[in-house]
Amino acid sequence: MRLISGNSVARFSASQSDVAVFEALGSAPAASFHHALRWYNQIASYGSDKTALPGVKPTLEAAPANDDDDDVDLFGSDDEEVSHR
């Protein structure tokens, strides 16, 4: 999201893209995320008027969890363990 130089997710005014992200978050971000919290509070201020914002609300799906951090082998070895002879 480009929240430092703009006020919304996709453009300079709030849209249904903002509403989709707002709803996906579920709760306000931590105060340490200044720009995200400002954006969240701005979208929350629309209240029930969020449905009147322009655009088509996209469907957001969570990315699949990827626990496998062994897929990149920076040293070019083919074995899980290094064999010493």
From TrEMBL:
Its domain of life reads Eukaryota
Molecular function GO terms recorded: guanyl-nucleotide exchange factor activity; translation elongation factor activity
Question: Could you tell me where the Acidic residues compositional bias lies?
Answer: 66-85
Signal sequence extent: none
Show the InterPro entries listed in the entry.
Answer: EF1B_bsu/dsu, Transl_elong_EF1B_B/D_CS
Q: Which residues form a coiled coil?
A: none
Region of interest called Disordered, as start-end residue ranges on this chain: 57-85
**Record's GO cellular component, any one?**
eukaryotic translation elongation factor 1 complex
Query: What name does UniProt use for this protein?
Result: Elongation factor 1-beta
Q: Which organism is it from?
A: Hyalella azteca (Amphipod)
